[in-house]
Amino acid sequence: MTAWERGRRLPLVAEIPLAAAAGAGTFALAPVALEGISSGVVVALLGVVYIAAVIAIARFAGIAYAVPVAMAGMLAYDWFYLPPTHPFAFPDVANLVDLVAYLGVGVLLGELAAHAARRAESSERARREIADEQAALRRVATLVARGAPANEVFDAVAAEAGRLLDVHGIRIARYEDETELVHVAEWSKAGYNLPAYDRAKLEGTSVSAEVLRTGRAARIDNYEDIAVRAAFARGVNAKSVVGAPVVVEGRLWGVMISWSGSGPLPPDMEGRLTEFAELVATAISNTDARTGMARLASEQAALRRVATLVAKAVPTAEVFEAVTREVGLQCGADVARMERFERDHTVTAIAAWSSGGEAPLAVGKRFALEGESIAAQVLATGRPARLDTFIGTSGPIAREAQALGIRASIGCPIVVGRRTWGLIAASTRRDAPFPPNTESRIADFTELVATAVANAEARADLLASRARLLTAGDDARRRVVRDLHDGAQQSLVQVIITLRLVEHALRDDDMAVEPLIGEALDQAEQANAELRELARGILPAILAGGGLAAGVRALVSRLRLPVDVDVPRDRFPPEIEASAYFVVAEALTNVAKHADARSANVTARVDDGVLRVHVWDDGVGGARADGSGLLGLNDRVAAMGGRLEIESPPGDGTRIAATLPLQPSRTP
């Protein structure tokens, strides 16, 4: 369709009379042109001019007018010039009917030819549009397929869509929290530059808000009449606007907008714009997939590096620094810090990292958990936390963050043995908060830290336990040596001295031998008794002879308060019986000395190959698990592969429970 036709084409009911009038006018002008011409050359020249005029009419006015004009000219030439000629006068009725019939046929043929030409041109135009659209889509798809950066793809989509759809401007934007529109890409024709924006609230009337509300394409054809506009639409000289949703993996990601500053956009604009919006969605999905794979690979590599450090049992300070650095890098943070909770409701920074290489966060400094902070939230809830702004917050940690220009922070707890040991926090100086689910990317690192801390504490406890066991063994040996020296050893020395006197008496035939022999015998018996008593102090003889039940009853018999005993008479391995006996002995000794109890209870039972020993009392409670006696018991039980539990709330008695495997696995 020509430019003249696009602007001048009339409805069919108007075009047919005009075409007939053009033919009639041509017929009426013929006698004026032919009157008085007798030269055939002049007529031929007029014929050439006439043919050129018909061609011009067909080119600029359309074939619907050219055919009637051509037929009217030929009819006039035959009517007025070729014999028999007609007079230059208005035709009679019969001739007028012939003339109208000729002109009617001309108009009909012209309209049929015009309709066929228009259909052919429309089909060709549609074919070209489809070809152009497919070419544009292929160009963009090629960018998507070769993994071009997302911003390059978005700019290309906007430009291709704008040129192909023949609009004045294209915008691509992303929804954020269903309250804001964030700029992604745009394109506009020369002279139709759009006002710049980074993000703006979704307020007033806009296609973007309507697409967000309905999830479908939307249009506004009277945009110049809208008074209340969002910030991203102010200053836009638009008359018609169409928006199509960008849907990524089933969720509404953003919107693609086309606009015209001259008039309404075509009726099929929604469908054509949606095809480009789908390309944007594909690009986003591919980019997200590539980014997700790269991020996953990076996270796994970082986790392997930290796990290797943990497995090598390197110093915990080195592990802390490595984890803090990896968390900062993986989260795209500006700074990161690891902190440990203290018993006095404070938190200590134990490792720090920054993207610039400096260490602006205080390490080794304690902060009170006052005001708003990630640390306070994590300690209170035991769950991940985030602060999207420190504006208006108070407290020492908030003041430090404000001084360092930190805008937002996230953090995850480090849980060791069911207690919140500390946290890892990442912070940014950018205005935008961390993306959703960033906290979950830190969780794996906190588990590795918890493992490293637990391992370090276990190693420290093991070393302390070994030291205590060695000290206790040395003390026991020294006590045995002292008791032997002060008791049985002295008696045996006296026996030796007496026997030497007997030897001298026998050599001298002294009659006083018999009393000396008797004295030596008495001294030997005393030494034997002292050795037996010493052995009883190390391990009661009744335990070796009667087992755990007999040993516990012997202990209970020496107490002045009632004790219920429920201990099986079964025999157990000697080391198990000894450990269980000492647990009961220490517990009942504490009851007698400190508990101020009225009664106690001792039970033992075998359950799934484990001997479980419980001692209760109804005393004042408050027993300390780190006391020398109970600490030694814990070491003994742990050395047997068992576990000792102590519950002693003030005012509510004490419960001591020991679990001893009947086939113990000794700690090396």
From TrEMBL:
Signal peptide segment: none
Keyword list (alphabetical) reads:
ATP-binding, Kinase, Membrane, Nucleotide-binding, Phosphoprotein, Transferase, Transmembrane, Transmembrane helix, Two-component regulatory system
Principal subcellular localisation of the protein: membrane
Show the catalytic activity.
ATP + protein L-histidine = ADP + protein N-phospho-L-histidine
Give every Histidine kinase/HSP90-like ATPase domain span. 575-664
Which InterPro entries does the record cross-reference, listed alphabetically? Answer: GAF, GAF-like_dom_sf, HATPase_C_sf, HATPase_dom, KdpD_sf, KdpD_TM, Sensor_HK_TwoCompSys, Sig_transdc_His_kin_sub3_dim/P
Which EC numbers characterise this protein's activity in its record? 2.7.13.3
Q: Does the keyword Cell cycle apply?
A: no
Q: Which residues cross the membrane?
A: 12-30, 36-56, 63-80
GAF domain segment(s):
149-294, 315-463
Positions of the region Disordered?
Answer: 646-668
- Give the location in the cell: Membrane
How does this protein lie in the membrane? Multi-pass membrane protein
User: Which domain of life does the protein's organism represent?
Assistant: Bacteria
Give the protein name, as stated in the record: histidine kinase
* Species of origin: Pseudonocardia aurantiaca
